[in-house]
Amino acid sequence: MTDQAFNPATNEWYYPSEDIIKSARVPDYEAMYAEADRDLEAFWGKMASNLDWYAPWEKVLDESDAPFYKWFVGGKINITANALDRHVKTWRKNKLALIWEGEPGDKVTLSYWRLWKETNKFANVLRSMGVRKGDRVTIYMGRIPEIMIAMLACAKIGAVHSVVYGGFSE
Questions:
Q1: Would you say the pTM of this structure is higher than 0.70?
Q2: DSSP assignment letter at 95
Q3: Chain segment 7-63, per-residue pLDDT in tens
Q4: Buried b (16+ CB within 10 A) or exposed e, 100-135
């Protein structure tokens, strides 16, 4: 199966290059799909074991209160530990984590290390403002690189965030 993207504005399909397909982490999508279909819990347990957990889960899926399913019961994880922290400790720290292109031709690139540093800086700003784990933060800004920093900073401190797109404000 070939991944593709459709652009409704131009009515065009975009296909990845052969090099991208060869380097994809999923060499056989159909086999992976069949594995997940055969044993959902084993599949997702295997996938989740590729992540860094603060505390392991006791059960992959708890269906006892359907339709209020609970995944990875007892496990503790933070997305920033997996998205950033684990990479700044390796050779990837200087690899690009974020490539942003704006209009007209503006471009910002951030390495894992730089994104990690900016995320930590903003997480400290949030903490200094009294934001704590479980608090709710609304992020009102356009689609600029700083939106990723703000979202990751919220996740880092355990605050729930909601993005309100501010691109059409005057």
A1: yes
A2: S
A3: 776 777 777 778 777 777 787 889 999 999 999 999 999 999 999 999 999 999 999
A4: eeeeeeeeeebbbbbbbebbbebbeebeeeebeeee
Could you tell me the two tokens for 152? 């990751």
User: CA torsion sign, 155 to 157 to 161 to 164?
Assistant: negative
Residue 107 forms beta bridges with which residues?
101
DSSP letter assigned to residue 132: -
Every domain of the chain and the residues it spans = 1-38, 78-170
Distance from C-alpha of 41 to C-alpha of 61, rounded to nearest angstrom: 6
Q: Write the DSSP symbol of residue 104.
A: T
The CATH number, out of the four listed (3.20.20.70, 3.40.50.720, 3.40.50.1000, 3.40.50.980), of the domain defined by the range 78-170: 3.40.50.980
What is the C-alpha separation between 151 and 17, in angstroms, rounded?
Answer: 31
